[in-house]
Amino acid sequence: MYIPFYGVLATLSTFLPVLVGAVRWKADARKEVGLFYFLLLFNAISAGLQLVLASFNINNLWISHVSALAEVELVLFAFRSWQQNETARTIILSAAVFYLITWVFLRFIEEFTGPSLIAFPVARAVVMVFSFQMLYVLARDSEAPLLNMPRFWIVATTMISGAAAIMFFALQGMITRMQVSEVVRVFYAYWTLTILLNCSYSWAFLCKASQTNSGGH
After folding, report:
1. Are the beta carbons of 205 and 20 closer than 8 angstroms?
2. b/e for 196-205, b at 16 or more Cβ within 10 A?
3. pTM for the full predicted model
4. Closest to 2 in 3D by CA, of 49, 58, 53, 55
5. Which of 59, 95, 150, 193 has CB 3.0 to 4.6 Å from 29, enough for a Cys bridge?
6. How many whole angstroms separate alpha carbon 198 and alpha carbon 12?
7. Could you give the dihedral angle defined by the CA atoms of residues 163, 165, 170 and 173, in that order, rounded to the nearest 10 degrees?
C-alpha cells in the first residue's frame, strides 16, 4: 500500500513528544504531565504499528478499538489525579468505569477487525467533554499564566485533537463522495493538524511547570 511521505511524516511526528518527554524525564514538566506521557507513548507505538501493517497490506483496524479504550482510561485517570475536589474525582472515575463497561459491551456489536464506528468517536467525545471541563478548572484555579503550565498545553491540545477527530469522523460520508484530488487535500489538512498537535504536546514538556490548584475547593 502506497503511503504519501507527508502521511509518514505525520505518523512519525507522534514520536516527537515521546522523545522530548524522555529527555525531560526528571524535569518538573514531566511530573506535571504524569499519565499523559504513557498515553503519548502508546499513541506513538500504535501509529507506528498502523503504518507498518498498512505498508504490508495487513489489517490494522483493530488498533483503533484498543486505542479508544487506552485513550479514555489514561486521560480520565490523569485528570482525576489533577483534581482535588472529591465530587469531581468521583464523576471522572464513574465515567472511566462506564466507558470500560461500554467498550466491553461493544465487542459484541462491533467487529474487532473492522472500523471502530462507535467506540472510537464516543471515546473522543468523552475526552473532549472532560478536557473542556478540566480547562475550565485550570483557568479558574491556576495561580500562574496558563501558557506557562504543562497541564494547559496537554488539556488544550487533547480537546482540539478530540474535536478534530469527531469532525473528521462526521464528514466521512461527505469525504467518500469527493473527488480524489479533494480527498487528498482533506488528508493533507488532517496530517498538518496532527503535526501541529504533536508539536503542542511536545511544548508541554518544555515549558516551565507552574503552581496550580485544580479543583481544590
Report:
1. yes
2. ebbebbbbbb
3. 0.87
4. 55
5. 150
6. 10
7. 160
From residue 33, alpha-carbon distances to 6, 53, 99, 177 in Å are 29, 30, 23, 41
Phi first, then psi: what are they for 53, rounded to 5°? Answer: -65, -40
Mean pLDDT of the chain: 88
Number of neighbours of residue 2 by Cβ within 10 angstroms: 6
Q: Where are the beta strands (DSSP E) in 1-105?
A: none
What pLDDT digit, counting tens, does each position of 11-25 carry? 999 999 999 988 876
Q: Are 33 and 19 in contact (CB under 8 A)?
A: no
Q: Could you tell me the three cell numbers for 100?
A: 470500560
The lowest-confidence range among 50-59, 74-83, 138-147 is 138-147
User: Which phi-psi region, left, alpha or beta, contains residue 72 (left: φ > 0; alpha: ψ -120 to 50)?
Assistant: alpha
Say whether pLDDT at 33 is over 70.
yes
Angle between helices 119-141 and 150-170 (to 10 degrees): 150
